[in-house]
Design a protein that fits this description.
Blueprint (H helix, E strand, L loop, with lengths): L7 H16 L2 E3 L2 E3 L3 H20 L8 E3 L5 E3 L1 E3 L5 E3 L2 H23 L1
């Protein structure tokens, strides 16, 4: 039987290093993006909304705007680390959210080593 023990100190050091790596900006499509914990939640939330709109037939992959439940037009955009508002199509935003998720997953995998 293989027993592996990680001291609380070593675990804290790995967790801290991973969290710091996730606080750093990440490059996608030529821009720097923040992918801290709350950023990732908000990106996933917006991706879920766009997926729902896509499934319902309310948007297409090339749309950069959609009509919300109050009949207001909303632009599909996200701010870069440099506070530049980037307008994205539905497809671009979904690909962005996938890249963010893969980036976070990579940081977790790296922290296991």
């Amino acid at each position: 039987m293989l027993v592996s023990h990680v001291s609380p100190y070593a675990l804290e050091r790995k967790t801290s290093a991973r969290n710091e790596a996730l606080k750093a900006s990440f490059v996608w499509d030529g821009s720097l993006w923040q992918v801290r914990f709350l950023d990732r939640i908000n990106i996933a939330r917006k991706a879920a909304r766009l997926n729902s709109l896509l499934l319902l037939g309310d948007v297409s992959l090339t749309d950069t705007t959609y009509t919300d439940t109050d009949s207001n037009t909303r632009t599909i955009a996200w701010r870069t680390t440099l506070n530049v508002n980037r307008t994205l199509s539905v497809e671009e935003f979904l690909r962005f959210s996938i890249a963010v998720d893969e980036h976070a997953e990579d940081k977790y995998i790296e922290s296991w080593a």
